[in-house]
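Query structure, 275 tokens:
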């Protein structure tokens, strides 16, 4: 089998890789069990206007594992995408988030709030994605113009024409779109203006870098300018300190999100933000 590690340390069977593969297989099995067991839940992070009023929330998936406690999405979403389990999970997220949106419509304190939902490329590029969203809206009775779907740059550059078509069909009923983690991917300026986008969410790495030496501040300024030129609102992600808030306010961001305003919360703890 594997050669004893020689002078060159060449070994065909990499034990570290083998361990990763089996850990992944175990995670996949565990996720199937969790899905059936209803261990997934949504938390909601408040999104604020730059002057500190609640504008809406972003739905964020959580896995309450019986042994491991809360498992963060970075650990399980990639696996869910590789195994297509994200299709089921993503549909559940939409249904859950739109259900809340629909309940919000009955209360004047919450009726104008927006719900942002993250969409995986695996979900979006399915041929029936548009029908799925329309179906969820119909079933829950949520107002389409209060729903915002967050897409990543890499999702947008794959099959641009097909992407534009899907976005336009949902735009027609009022659904809006944001680019998530903007600046970290490979958006091309040549088609960004062709996509029916309403918001750029500046990745938190640029907000954090802005206080340091280097180009963070210049990049934030550039993205705000770009968003405004293209008629989009601009949201700063990951604002943790008053200094960062002062900075993004100075730069003209319209919205912000981050631990300074609020961490993601379970639904029953959102009420303190309503007024
Ligand atoms: P994202 O969409 O960029 O979501 C923002 C992430 O930043 C969240 O992490 C949030 O908790 C975190 N965050 C917000 N403010 C701050 C801050 O001030 N400081 C720091 N350090 N972090 C902050 P979370 O919940 O762990 O989610 C990570 C990523 O997982 C999300 O990034 C999104 O890409 C993905 N994700 C979460 N829920 C879903 C989902 O329902 N579907 C899909 N497809 N992806 C999801
Ligand atoms: Mg997001
Ligand atoms: Mg983001
Ligand atoms: Mg992010």
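Result returned for the query:
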């Amino acid at each position: 089998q594997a050669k004893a590690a020689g002078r060159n340390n060449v070994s065909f069977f990499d034990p570290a890789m083998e361990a990763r593969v089996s850990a992944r297989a175990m995670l996949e099995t565990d996720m199937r069990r969790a899905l059936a067991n209803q261990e997934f839940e949504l938390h909601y992070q408040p999104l604020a206007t730059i002057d500190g009023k609640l504008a809406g929330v972003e739905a964020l998936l959580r896995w309450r594992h019986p042994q491991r406690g809360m498992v963060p999405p970075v650990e399980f979403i990639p696996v869910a995408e590789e195994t297509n389990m994200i299709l089921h999970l993503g549909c559940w997220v939409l249904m859950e988030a739109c259900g809340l949106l629909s309940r919000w419509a009955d209360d004047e304190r919450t009726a104008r709030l927006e719900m942002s939902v993250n969409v995986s490329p695996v979900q979006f590029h399915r041929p029936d994605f548009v029908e799925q969203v329309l179906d969820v809206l119909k079933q829950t009775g949520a107002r389409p113009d209060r729903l915002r779907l967050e897409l990543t740059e890499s999702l947008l550059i794959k099959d641009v024409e097909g992407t534009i078509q899907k976005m336009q069909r949902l735009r027609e009923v009022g659904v809006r779109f944001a680019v998530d983690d903007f600046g970290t991917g490979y958006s091309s300026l040549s088609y960004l203006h062709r996509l029916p986008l309403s918001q750029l969410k500046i990745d938190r790495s640029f907000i954090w870098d802005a206080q340091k030496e280097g180009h963070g501040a210049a990049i934030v300024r550039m993205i705000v300018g770009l968003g405004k030129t293209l008629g989009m609102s601009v949201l700063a992600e990951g604002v943790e300190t008053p200094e960062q808030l002062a900075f993004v306010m100075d730069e003209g961001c319209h919205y912000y999100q981050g631990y300074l305003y609020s961490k993601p919360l379970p639904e029953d703890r959102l009420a303190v933000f309503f007024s």
